[in-house]
């Protein structure tokens, strides 16, 4: 299979790097200093599972130079989906499918509106990784795993082929009965503490152990669960207990991408995380006061990062 990794950050850079390092046909779509460093010096990955380096990756900011591929693994920020869906058109041939590895619960619908639901596959990336500096991805936590599934739950041939390819590269693959449940389960996890971390500037170890922030995380998770059930997503009855068990096992210094973006003054996924809980909750008459407060508290910083507010 010929793959394109659209968005070579912590997720795309790590998983795409593992595939390329294993000899698979991978083209990276990147931009800015990260693109230039990859073109000049390759892609380096520092990982708790062992470091590796891709000497001469196929990398560009112009999808036209790559042409149609078998699959696009999409790993951009959620707010970039509309523009990315247009920009990636040269990668999409008659049989190409797009795998959404984005945080949030709205990207599969957004992609389906552009490409058709039959061309979109759902995915969840499980790992803690980020761009340490241009040309370097740093993986600091969690066994790297991709959770994959067709939106209709069918075990398709393309899903089988992609799973085998990832397995060959040493990447863990999970295939749940419902990828939508898996996407919402991760959404409950990320919205539980991502925005709170951005407000407090504290890592997950502090947030989970301090009684005050522990209570806020719990309230966030219960609100997200209520919204999911209102939408019709059959999350497991013990989803909050499972999520807490996962949080307790995390490396205590971990921070969310939303927290890191806001701290650095960059546009974040606030609207696609806590903002989406509020927005979808209102649509289904579900109260989400904790998420509403988090969004309100972070909105000035988000607007400043987007050039909409100066202070």
TrEMBL record:
Pathway(s) served: Cofactor biosynthesis; (R)-pantothenate biosynthesis; (R)-pantoate from 3-methyl-2-oxobutanoate: step 2/2
UniProt signal peptide: none
Biological-process GO terms, alphabetical: pantothenate biosynthetic process
Cellular component GO terms, alphabetical: cytoplasm
Residues in Ketopantoate reductase N-terminal domain copies: 4-152
Listed EC numbers: 1.1.1.169
SUPFAM superfamilies listed in its UniProt record: 6-phosphogluconate dehydrogenase C-terminal domain-like, NAD(P)-binding Rossmann-fold domains
InterPro entries: 6-PGluconate_DH-like_C_sf, 6PGD_dom2, ApbA, KPA_reductase, KPR-Related, KPR_N, NAD(P)-bd_dom_sf
UniProt xrefs under Gene3D superfamilies: N-(1-d-carboxylethyl)-l-norvaline Dehydrogenase, domain 2, NAD(P)-binding Rossmann-like Domain
A GO term for molecular function: 2-dehydropantoate 2-reductase activity
Annotated catalysed reactions: (R)-pantoate + NADP(+) = 2-dehydropantoate + NADPH + H(+)
Pfam family, one: ApbA_C
Function: Catalyzes the NADPH-dependent reduction of ketopantoate into pantoic acid.
Broad class of enzyme this protein falls into: oxidoreductase
Protein name: 2-dehydropantoate 2-reductase
Highest taxon in the source lineage: Bacteria
Family according to the record: Belongs to the ketopantoate reductase family.
The keyword Protein transport is annotated on this UniProt entry: no
Domain Ketopantoate reductase C-terminal: residue ranges: 179-301
Keyword flag Translocase: no
Alphabetically ordered keywords of this record: NADP, Oxidoreductase, Pantothenate biosynthesis
């Amino acid at each position: 299979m010929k793959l394109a990794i659209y968005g070579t950050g912590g997720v795309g850079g790590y998983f795409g790097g593992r595939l390329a390092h294993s000899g698979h046909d991978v083209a990276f779509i990147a931009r800015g200093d990260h693109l230039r460093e990859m073109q000049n010096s390759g892609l380096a990955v520092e990982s708790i599972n062992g470091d590796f380096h891709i000497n001469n990756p196929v990398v560009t900011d112009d999808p036209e130079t790559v042409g149609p591929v078998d699959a696009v693994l999409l790993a951009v920020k959620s707010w970039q989906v509309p523009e990315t869906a247009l920009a990636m058109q040269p990668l999409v041939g008659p049989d190409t499918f797009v795998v959404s590895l984005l945080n949030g619960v709205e990207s599969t619908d957004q992609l389906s509106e552009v490409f058709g639901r039959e061309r979109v596959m759902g995915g969840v990336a499980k790992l803690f990784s980020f761009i340490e500096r241009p040309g370097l991805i740093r993986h600091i936590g969690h066994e790297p795993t991709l959770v994959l599934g067709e939106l209709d739950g069918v075990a398709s041939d393309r899903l089988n082929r992609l799973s085998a390819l990832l397995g060959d590269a040493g990447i863990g693959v999970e295939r749940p009965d419902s990828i939508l449940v898996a996407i919402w389960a991760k959404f409950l996890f990320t919205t539980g503490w991502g925005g709170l971390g951005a407000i407090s500037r504290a890592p997950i170890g502090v947030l989970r152990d301090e009684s005050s922030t522990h209570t806020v995380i719990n309230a966030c998770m219960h609100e997200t669960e209520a919204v999911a059930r209102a939408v019709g997503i059959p999350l497991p009855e013990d989803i909050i207990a499972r999520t807490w068990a996962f949080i307790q096992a995390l490396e205590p210094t971990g921070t969310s991408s939303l927290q890191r973006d806001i701290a650095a003054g960059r546009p974040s996924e606030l609207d696609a995380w806590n903002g989406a809980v509020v927005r979808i909750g209102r649509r289904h008459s579900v109260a989400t006061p904790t998420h509403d407060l988090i969004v309100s508290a972070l909105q000035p910083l988000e607007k400043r990062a987007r050039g909409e507010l100066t202070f």
